[in-house]
Amino acid sequence: MTTRREGVTPAEEPEGQRVLLAEADVARTIARMAHQVIEKTAPEEGAPPVLLGIPSRGAPLARRLAGRIAEFSGQTVDTGIVDVTLYRDDLRLRPNRPLEPTTLPEDGIDGRLVVLVDDVLYSGRTIRAALDALRDHGRPKAIQLAVLVDRGHREVPIRADYVGKNVPTSRAEDIAVLLTETDGTDGVVLRPAREEGDQG
Amino acid sequence: MTHLLSAEHLGRDDAVAILDTAEELKRTLLHREVRKLPTLRGRTVVTMFYENSTRTRVSFEIAGKWMSADVINVSASGSSVSKGESLRDTAATLAAAGADCVIVRHPASGAPQRIAGWLDGVSVINAGDGMHEHPTQALLDAATLRERLGGLEGRRVLIVGDVLHSRVARSNVHLLRTLGAEVTLVAPPTMLPDGMDRWLDEAEVPVSYDLDAELPGTDAVMMLRVQAERLGGGGDSSAGFFPSTREYSISYGLSEARARLLPEHAVILHPGPMLRGMEIASSVADAQNSVITEQVRNGVHVRMAVLYHLLASEETK
To answer: How far lies A76's CA from each of A47, A48, A117, B272, in Å?
Structure first.
């Protein structure tokens, strides 16, 4: 998985950018993660997991992952969105951020297996905030984490249960996850950081 | 944003951002077991009320507490103000004691602006200053109207009653127009500010003395309380502004018969406290299309949003 993607020629890549996952790779990766979620949660008694995406790109990712899980397992999977803005520990270090909607399944998350879904796992601080947010929304039976890209550089002891792709990076680089829902196309691109990223 | 001192100087983008945040907060808190967010943990908010208030003070206190700020209430009667301490010294004391935000209600117009100029690194929120402004009331009115009417662009809003003494009216005129609504003022000629033409362009904010004629074409009607405490005139409740309370009620009160002139979708607002039977009939205040308790409910979310915008991000310090 560490070789350059076939079909993507250097000419297509703007200066300094490297395509880590092309459109087809993203779809394949999500399909693989769906199988892993099914495999790891199948022995669980009762309801299937609830997939909660973290805005912005975690939300469409959660819906896609849920779609594939439903397709492969035949079980319908609840999805939702959990906005962590109000729980962040870096609010005072940045300009104001608008809030994103939070939507949870009708009957809540009490006693359910929750899988948090985000695009990039970096410092881990976003996930820490999400764990705090979930605590205020109910008491899940267990919480797992699925990320499309794990780029390392953790600042808190958090790890993902499902990883689409591990990418060793330098802090001077940016990982851009592009999704059709938010960016018009699918892909994962590594590029030099323009400014301090806010990926967590 | 560092302070919230007036609706007049609140830009459209900031106003919409606050309303959007309030809407999101309302939604996110609705079905939650724990109605508390950790966002303002460790920040200290002081309410400094030099005038009586129930809903505004309580609403700010709840808003601060639901955001996990430490909220301390200071009232003029229970503080050193009653020993003769100046406004400046009281404000400086609160800042030195560690307040990050001071919420001020004061009978003198402009008091919060003065405090904002005196204090460094402290956010000041105007919770009503004399006959000037009450911006968070206008914001919660706008939030309620937006929720009930689906938007404010092009909506017609009547503001009826004691416009002269009303900071609520002034803030609403500015904010509602910023958000694209058309505002008409209805009041007895004696209860409009002197020099209306210098304050507002008659073509943009029409003034009417005939409530019955205005009601059928409006989307919302906001009734104002006649502010007896600001009328002067000793024991006389009308103080020469109108012949009698009964006559005021007949000409400018929202009676049941008048409420029937409103279109089906129109809503009735009142900033409170209401004088039932004076500017609004009791049955009208409790009617289906009255959103008066909804205004109070939205007040908490709007004030949480204001605190979030002033205190949560980097710009304040």
So the answer is: 10, 8, 17, 49
- For domain B12-133+296-316, the question of CATH label 2.70.20.10 is answered with no
Chain A, chain B: beta-carbon pairs less than 8 Å apart = 58
Cβ–Cβ contact B43 with A under 8 A = no
What residue ranges do the domains of chain A occupy? 24-169
Report the topology of domain A24-169: Rossmann fold (3.40.50)
Q: Is B312's CB within 8 Å of A100's CB?
A: no
Of B176, B103, B174, give the one whose Cα is nearest residue B141: B176
Q: CA A15, CA A175: separation in Å to the nearest integer?
A: 15
ipTM over 0.90: no
Distance separating alpha carbons of residues B49 and B68, to the nearest angstrom: 21
Nearest CA in chain B to A83: B28
B116, B117, B118, B120: CA torsion to nearest 10: 70
Q: How confident is the model at residue A47 (pLDDT cuts 50, 70, 90)?
A: confident
Chain B window 3-42: which residues touch A at a Cβ cutoff of 8 Å? 17, 20-21, 24-25, 27-28, 31-34, 36-39
CA dist list (Å): B105 to B60, B136, B296: 12, 12, 18
Measure the CA–CA gap between A41 and A23, rounded to whole angstroms.
27
φ, ψ (nearest 5 deg) of residue A116: -75, 140
pLDDT at residue B292 in the model: 96
At B3-25, the pLDDT tens digits run 999 999 999 999 999 999 999 99
Q: Quick one: how far is CA A96 from the chain centroid?
A: 23
Optimal mutation site among A96, A97, A134, interface B, most CBs of chain B within 10 A: A96
Please name the member of B25, B308, B313 whose beta carbon is closest to the beta carbon of A94: B313
Does the beta-carbon distance from B28 to A95 stay under 8 Å? Answer: no
| Least CB–CB distance from B21: residue in A94, A98, A138 | A98
Q: CA A63 to CA B178: how far, in whole Å? A: 38
pTM attached to this predicted model: 0.88
For domain B135-295, say whether CATH 3.40.50.11750 is its number.
no
